[in-house]
Amino acid sequence: MNGEDDDEYIGFATLPEQVHRKAVRKGFDFTLMVVGESGLGKSTLINSLFLSELYKDRELPSVNDLIQRTVSIEKKQLEIEEKGVRLKLTIVDTPGFNDTVNADDCHKALLEYVEQQFKQYFEDESGLNRRNIVDNRVHCCLYFISPYGHGLRQIDVETMKKLHHKVNIVPLLAKADILTKQELKAMKDRIMQEIEDNKIHVYEFPDCDSDEDEDFKQQDRELKASIPFAVVGCNTVVEAGGKKIRGRAYPWGIVEVDNPDHCDFVRLRQMLISTHMQDLKDVTSDVHYENYRATHIRTQMSGTQKERVKLKRDSAPNFEAVADTDKLLEQKDAEILRMQQMLAQMQEQLKVKDTSPQKPQQKHVNGLGKL
C-alpha cells in the first residue's frame, strides 16, 4: 500500500478480526438434545461425534426398569478446545423415551424442558443483569429413528410435530449397518415422504451464497441429499489392510464409520460441527425463541387485560352502591337544612308576637255592654 492509499485508509476493515478475537476469547455454547428409544446407539454416536466418553459409567436398564420407566432429562456438559477455540457443549439426553408400553405422554417431558429453557432465557433477558446471560436453549435435536420398522411410527410423528416449532430437528436413521444399500435408500425415501405427508418441519439447510466455490456447493448438495442421516456409531478401532480404522467388524466385512460410502456419519459431523453449528444457533434465536417470546408477551398482555376487565366488572356494583348512598345522604342533608330553616322562621315569628304591646281587655256584664 502506497502513501496515497494510507491516507485514505480508515481502519474499519479490521472489524471482522476484532469480532473474531472477542468471540474466541469468550468461547461458544451449544446445546444438543438426543431423542430416541433405548438400544439405538445414541450414547455411542455422541461419543463418536465429539471423541469423548460421556457415558462410560452408564448401566443398561433391566427389563423391569424398562416396563416402569418414565422419560427423564439428563444433562452432561463438556468443554472442548480445538486450535484455541473453546466450545462448551451441553448434551441433553432423554432416557426412558418410548421404553414403556404406554408412550402417549413421552413428548411432554421434552416439550417442558425446551420451553423451560426459553422461559429462563426470557427472564434473564428481561432482568437487570443482562451481561452474563447463560444460553441453555436447545439448539438442535437429533431424533433417532429405528431401522427395524417400515418408516416413522406414530410416536415419532406425534413427538416431532410437538417439537418442530420449538427446536431444530435433525432426523437420523440409527444403526444403518443392518440395512443393505437398497433397503437404506427405500427407508430414507419412505421417511422423508412421511415427514412431508405429516407436515413435519425438520431443519432446513440455508441456501449457498452465489459467491461460494463449487466444492462448497457440491458439499451442501450432498448434505441436503443425506437427510435423514444414516449413522453408525462406533468407538472401536479395528485393523484392516494394515491400517487402523474406526468401525465394526462383521463376518462379511468391516463397516467404516468415517467412510462416506458406508454411512453418513462424516456428513452429520461436518454439518453439526464444521458448517452449520452457527446457523442452528441463529435459527433457534431468530425463529424458535422469537416465536416463544411473542406468544409469551401476548399471553401476558391478554392476562393483564382480562384482570382489568374482571376488576372493573367486580368493582362496578360497589361504585354504584356508593354513588346511591351519597345521593341519599345529600337529599337527607337538604331536607334537614330545610327543616332547620323552617324551625328558625317559626321561632322568629314567636319572638315577634311575644314582644308586641297587648290591648286591655273590656269587661261585659250580663251582655249589657260596657261598664
TrEMBL record:
Keywords: GTP-binding, Nucleotide-binding. Residues 349-371 are annotated as: Disordered. The keyword tRNA-binding does not apply. Gene3D superfamilies: P-loop containing nucleotide triphosphate hydrolases (3.40.50.300). InterPro entries: G_SEPTIN_dom, P-loop_NTPase, Septin. CDD domains: CDC_Septin (cd01850). Residues 26-299 form the Septin-type G domain. PANTHER family: SEPTIN. Belongs to the TRAFAC class TrmE-Era-EngA-EngB-Septin-like GTPase superfamily. Septin GTPase family. This is Septin. The gene is LOC101850729.
